[in-house]
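Researcher: Please predict.
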Amino acid sequence: MKLKTPHKSSAPGHLSRGASLSLVLLLLFVAGLLSSCASSKKKMAEDDPKPAPELTAEQRKLELESFDAVWTTIRDKHWDPDLNGIDWDGVKMELRPEMEVVKNADESRAILGRMIARLEQSHFGIVPRDVYEEEEEEDSTPDGENETSKAKETGGSGEAGLEVRILDGHAVVTEVWDDYPAKEHGVMPGFIVSRVGSWDVQKAIDRWEKGNSGSSSEDAKKTAKRSWFLSRRVEGRLSRSVGKKVMVTFIDGNDDKKEINLPMKAKRGKEVRFGNMPSLYLWKSSKEISDDIGSFRFNTFMDPMALMPWVATTMGSFKEKDGIIIDLRGNPGGIGALAMGVAGWFTEKKSQKLGTMTTRVSSMKFVVNPRPRAFSGALAILTDEHTGSTSEIFAGGMQDLERARVFGQRSMGVALPSVFERLPNGDGFQYAIANYISEGGKPLEELGVTPDEVVVPTRRELLDGRDPVVEAAVDWIRSRDGS
């Protein structure tokens, strides 16, 4: 399948015409939280950012054109012509008068957000134009400088090198990266993030949990997504321009407060750009857990020319193993076609498929591309509440084909193929153009992938240096081998 890259319009006053079924299956954080992180140089330098400037008459005109473009695009390109019964004309009649009197860009984005929220579906969102402007500024740096020096030169967005999850009502550090400031300053998995700058993290979590204490399955779905959003919000607050510092209060393993002024380092991995989508960073890692088990992980299904050769090399080094673990925890997805390519390393059977994508006018089967000497050993896939989109397509499809056993937590349930375009006001617009049904006959949207073995790490296990999800996968692989 040939992937088409959406054309980036040279004039921001028009939607790009080259948007196609490029299967960019990225989570909503790309159009939401990621964009706020990427603009840290303008918004995160202070904990109380100033309000957006008032719009001029010409800018207000562009905001109205953007509203009309979003509304029309959803009406014409959503895979369901009936929009699941929503009175879309009524939505326009209700919200467009509000758009006519907005004072600034933030108010405009809030109205657009309310409009697309009526769909109650993933992969719809607005990317502030500041994100694109920052990337264009970084592009203007003279050639010949490496990525790290370029980021330092321009004050590009950086990170401290840690991952956070919401566990038992706390923002808990679940991973600390080598060669990054967090580890160098003594931060360890199991530490609780209590405060970032003047923002009281624990109070924010407590307010959130007080208002979301339902116990139904529907409440559980919403809680999982709110958990994802809140942990990403914490990580966003921990992002500043490279060279800047942020004071963070942690609760350590002895439950003592530990204040650390964390400096920022250039983002991990290789910068990846795809059409009108904001840039992401791809990183990859592999390791031998033991002589009989190998494991690999990558954080997004992007950059085929870099990712697929690396997967091939990794699989070659693991070909004699009894089992392989693919860790998709925290992976939000990417280019859908890559799921088929990775799946092909684990089956020699032809005509197998992971699922089917359906648009308003056609459908496409996600057929696995089998390898002639595919790995036949045990395959374990790890997921959590941050696993989404293409990662869910891969994990759920391999589970349906009974080729893999899934460990960890239920995935996000955000698996709608989408594309990005630019709006007249310069903002980006991500919208879903298809539905996706897994090979097992169920939609992944909302439902997600349910692990065969649910394993939720505890803070105590993390403080002890353990990863119970990996441990469960290892135990299963060895039980199959009889060792």
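Model: Residues 121 and 445 are 8 Å apart (CA to CA).
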